[in-house]
């Protein structure tokens, strides 16, 4: 897994293959909401909600989901109204 951080959507998309699933994360204080896109990245559907625990445990769960669903990128929710 290669790590790159992009705040620019076009920069992010230019580094991805044409097809592949994205994993969306909605980070909350107590839970992490997850959504998974289809391979063509036209639609995302809710996947599950993880109860937050220790960082290492949460990272392990996310890595397993990343591998299980052949994810090529992660999109973090940006809290606009906080």
UniProtKB/TrEMBL annotation:
GO terms for biological process: rRNA 5'-end processing. It holds the Pfam family RuvX. SUPFAM superfamilies: Ribonuclease H-like (SSF53098). Gene3D superfamilies: YqgF/RNase H-like domain (3.30.420.140). NCBIfam families: RNAse_H_YqgF. This is YqgF/RNase H-like domain-containing protein.
